Structure to design on (360 residues):
């Protein structure tokens, strides 16, 4: 019973459970473990938009929740709100809204954003109150811990943790490198389960 | 487990009975390993309160605590800092687990676990997962500046739970 001393790898392969932007057959997959209330994730948000533009169809982007509840009191509910919007087909719209309005994440605002996105407000409110997506967010969090996520944001490029800086240039360079070497897709990363 | 050149004996490994200890968490409250008999215990030695990486590591464990508790496991942080320092650090970071002071004689518990750094006067960044019978089931020493994360601990707890529930 001893730990692998190799670099951290994604413990939960990207699958249909995930929120994905970009083509399934893209040579590069970028997974972010993020927290909607984390200022660093807020700073990463426009950078990700930019690298997605630059990479085009060569990149698929996956967002998973890693709410740091002890530091960020709104992070858990914000994550559940995005999942609730996802259940109504508007995950990315809510994801974007939350990062753009990071300073206003109280429940009343979450409901307001749901209204802006023309979601079924009654259902959204009920699901948020009942914690319907709490297990889903927990599953994301746990998969992050098992993958060696120590803080947010943490990125994985084709299943390997990206330990370099994630400013636009270094991140884009890492993605270009991954695209040219065509490392095995994350579906082949070892799954401990 | 990583080899450790600083301690000739190296850190205690899997299968070894965990040395019992009793250390203060506050000026008038001590915690003993045997208090947790029957439940898994995670002992996390770290070099110092307030130093940046330790802060991140302890902050991470504070977040992952609910996952540890799902296995019924208790987490104990241990460093050579004194109780007043621990109290202030725990309050500042809002930690929900005890920090124990391996303060007098300094580093005595860390020495028994093979994770004291003689020249430096503080402990390695070392993790031990101990089962309900008091036997070490997993241990890991990371480089001082590297946050070891919580994946190794969770995997060890998962393996323990797997051993225990074949019924």
């Amino acid at each position: 019973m001893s730990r692998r001393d190799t670099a951290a790898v994604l413990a939960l392969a990207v699958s249909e459970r995930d929120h994905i932007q970009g083509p399934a057959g893209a040579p590069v997959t970028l997974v972010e473990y993020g927290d909607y209330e984390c200022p660093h994730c807020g700073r990463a948000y426009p950078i990700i938009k930019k690298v997605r533009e630059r990479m085009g169809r060569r990149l698929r982007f996956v967002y998973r929740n890693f709410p740091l509840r002890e530091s960020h009191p709104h992070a858990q509910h914000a994550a559940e709100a995005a999942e609730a919007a996802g259940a109504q087909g508007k995950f990315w719209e809510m994801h974007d809204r939350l990062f753009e309005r990071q300073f206003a994440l109280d429940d009343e605002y979450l409901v307001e954003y749901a209204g802006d996105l023309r979601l079924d407000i009654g259902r959204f409110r009920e699901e948020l109150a009942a914690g319907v997506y709490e297990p889903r967010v927990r599953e994301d969090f746990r998969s992050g811990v098992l993958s060696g996520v120590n803080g947010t944001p943490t990125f994985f490029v084709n299943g390997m943790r990206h330990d370099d800086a994630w400013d636009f240039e270094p991140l884009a360079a890492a993605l270009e490198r991954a695209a040219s070497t065509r490392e095995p897709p994350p579906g082949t990363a070892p799954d401990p389960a | 487990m990583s080899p450790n050149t600083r301690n000739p004996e190296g850190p205690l490994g899997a299968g070894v009975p965990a040395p019992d200890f009793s250390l203060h968490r506050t000026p008038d409250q001590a915690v003993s390993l045997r208090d947790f008999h029957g439940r898994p215990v995670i002992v996390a030695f770290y070099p110092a309160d307030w130093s940046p990486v330790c802060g991140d590591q302890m902050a991470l464990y504070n977040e992952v605590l609910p996952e540890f508790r799902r296995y019924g496991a208790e987490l104990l942080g241990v460093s050579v800092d004194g109780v007043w320092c621990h109290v202030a650090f725990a309050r500042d970071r809002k930690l929900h687990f005890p920090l124990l002071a391996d303060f007098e004689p300094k580093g005595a518990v860390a020495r028994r676990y093979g994770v004291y750094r003689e020249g430096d006067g503080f402990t390695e960044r070392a993790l031990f997962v101990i089962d309900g019978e008091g036997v070490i089931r997993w241990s890991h020493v990371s480089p001082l500046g590297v946050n070891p994360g919580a994946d190794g601990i969770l995997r060890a707890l998962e393996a323990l739970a797997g051993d225990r529930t074949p019924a």
Summary: Chain B has one domain: 22-164. Chain B touches chain A at residues 1-2, 14, 56-57, 59-60, 62-64, 67, 94, 96, 137-138, 140, 147, 149-152, 154-156, 158-159 (CB under 8 Å). Helices of chain B lie at 52-69, 83-93, 108-112, 151-164. The domain at 22-164 of chain B is CATH 3.40.30.10 (Glutaredoxin).
